[in-house]
Design a protein that fits this description.
The model has no long low-confidence stretch (mean pLDDT 84). The chain is α+β, with helices and mostly antiparallel strands. The protein contains 4 helices and 7 strands. It has a domain at 21-106: 3-Layer(bab) Sandwich (Phage tail protein beta-alpha-beta fold), CATH 3.55.50. The chain starts with a strand and ends in a 33-residue tail after the last strand. The radius of gyration is 25 Å and the shape is elongated.
Length: 139
Amino acid sequence: MVRYGRYTLVELRPTEAQRDLLLQVIDVTLPVTLHATVGDALRHVLRRSGYRLCSGPETGALDALPLPAAHYRLGPMVLRDALLTLTGPAWNLHADEGARVVCVTPAGMPAEPVMPLPTPVGDADAPSETFPLAEEAQP
């Protein structure tokens, strides 16, 4: 600690966001373009963060995804959360701290495929199931 001014004490350590750049708080409004993609948004968010987006087939897949209108304004939020918001739950985020590169990979498929519920077919002859109504109890 060092005294800075008459009443202010300043700690002489870097903040957590300065040590882990993915914890920096961002507040970004993306430029409104007609054909913005998720890849474009990731590059824009990473522009002044100290990181860059890696290149590869996964990044190409994100360049094919249109950017939802809800993602044109992000923040204030932590950079890691903004990146996860843009990619969505179908992608995993990986950061190489040494090279300051952010990469994405597809998330693993669920162990069992999700089966849709069967659609009931209206049968006039089949009796419908009825449930008893709950009776109101008075003390």
